[in-house]
From TrEMBL:
Domain ABC transporter substrate-binding protein PnrA-like: 79-381
Protein name: BMP family ABC transporter substrate-binding protein
Annotated region (Disordered), positions in chain: 35-67
Domain of life where this protein originates: Bacteria
Signal peptide: 1-31
């Protein structure tokens, strides 16, 4: 069974959940931890079957009609790394590209600008101001680091519409927050890790120890323990709160991931922006597995040499949010956008590229259905 995970599109897959759950038998226990790092002992990591949910109660929301965006001028302000980061920014770029392909948005009427490492907060504000002065409307700011800039520039230009990804602190009538239920998608890849581990120990590596990345951590652990209550989940962060270098420090990511693999983990979920590349390198060296984030990282051209280590990715569909926002501005339906992009509206999910999780898709779809139906409530904190 394979699911359509095309970037930019909405899944048309109708989950026959009752049949899936009925076919999902209680699974056998994990093997004894052979990595010497404190994994569960034999018999302590038995996997349990997912809940059964009627298919009719777990259907994703339908896609909005396509509007004509040919008259829009769209500005996109990326976070550090920009287009080509194989992660967060590339997902936003995919949403813009889809708007060009499907909504009549003219490529010549788009402009992209990228934050630089170590720049001041004023630099981000000036970047947004330049886009506004250039007549771009709407303007999408990719990342919570733009919060101050969006508030400042949206106040200066009240007739221009703004959106900001990963922040909901700016309360202005011309600003739309594009936020996600990262914990829900992370729950699913945590379940995947628990279904695939042979050591009963898995790892999590976050870029920065802040509330946003903690949502990935919390959801991942909940998903893993929903499948295998005794599983050992080791979490680490590359940089502390307020220090955003953790999103661009592949060397440190490699060190942390290598330590987790040496300690017995055989799968690690990396939610660390460009630093994910360091986790993938460590997985390749250790001959272990990793889980990507934001985009379907198995298919990222920059990651071809390590893609076989990428078991799945927690897809945070920034592409869907950006596309939907442009479509809503074009159709004057911004007020109808969801308050949060989650499993029910295809805002988060998991990838199947490479076929490494094909055998567990029925279980993952059953957990997905239970979350959509409200039978499983995924918390955003531990």
């Amino acid at each position: 069974m394979r699911i359509n995970q095309r970037i930019g599109g909405r899944s048309r897959y109708a989950t026959a959940i009752a049949l899936v759950a009925a076919a999902a038998l209680t699974l056998t226990g994990c093997a004894r931890d052979t990595g010497g790092g404190g994994g569960a002992q034999a018999g302590e990591c038995e996997r349990v079957a997912p809940p059964s949910v009627p298919a009719a109660s777990a259907q994703p929301a339908p896609e909005a009609p396509k509007a004509d965006a040919s008259r829009l001028k769209v500005g996109l302000a990326y976070d550090i790394g920009g287009r080509g980061d194989a992660s967060f920014n590339d997902a936003a770029a995919a949403g813009l590209d889809r708007a060009v392909a499907e909504l009549g948005l003219q490529k010549a009427n788009t402009r992209e600008a990228t934050a630089q490492a170590g720049e001041s907060e004023d630099a981000g504000t000036n970047r947004l101001r330049q886009l506004a002065q250039g007549g771009f409307n709407p303007i999408v700011a990719v990342g919570f680091n733009y919060a101050t800039g969006v508030k400042t520039v949206a106040t200066e230009f009240p007739n221009i519409q703004f959106a900001i990804v990963d922040d909901d602190t700016v309360d202005l009538p011309n600003v739309k927050p594009l936020v996600f239920a990262e914990e829900q998608g992370s729950f699913l890849v945590g379940a995947a890790a628990a279904l695939k581990t042979s050591t009963c120990k898995v790892g999590f590596i976050g870029g920065v120890d802040n509330p946003l990345i903690q949502k990935f951590d919390a959801g991942y652990e909940q998903g893993a323990k929903a499948v295998a209550p005794q599983i050992d989940v080791e979490s680490a962060y590359i940089s502390p709160a307020g220090d955003f270098t953790g999103f661009n420090d592949a060397t440190r990511a490699t060190e942390i991931a290598s330590g987790q693999y040496d300690g017995g983990a055989d799968i690690a979920f990396a939610a660390a922006g460009q630093s994910n590349q360091g986790v993938f390198a460590a997985a390749q060296t250790a001959q272990k597995k990793a889980i990507g984030v934001d985009s379907d990282q198995y298919n990222s051209p920059q990651l071809t040499q390590v893609r076989d280590t990428i078991m799945t990715s927690m897809i945070k569909r920034v592409d869907v949010a950006v596309y939907d926002y442009v479509n809503a501005v074009a159709g004057n339906t911004v007020a109808q956008l969801p308050a949060r992009f989650d499993l029910a509206n295809n805002g988060v999910g998991y990838s199947t590229s490479g076929g490494q999780v094909d055998d567990i898709v029925p279980q993952l779809e059953a957990y997905k259905a239970a979350i959509i139906a409200g039978q499983i409530q995924v918390k955003s904190t531990k």
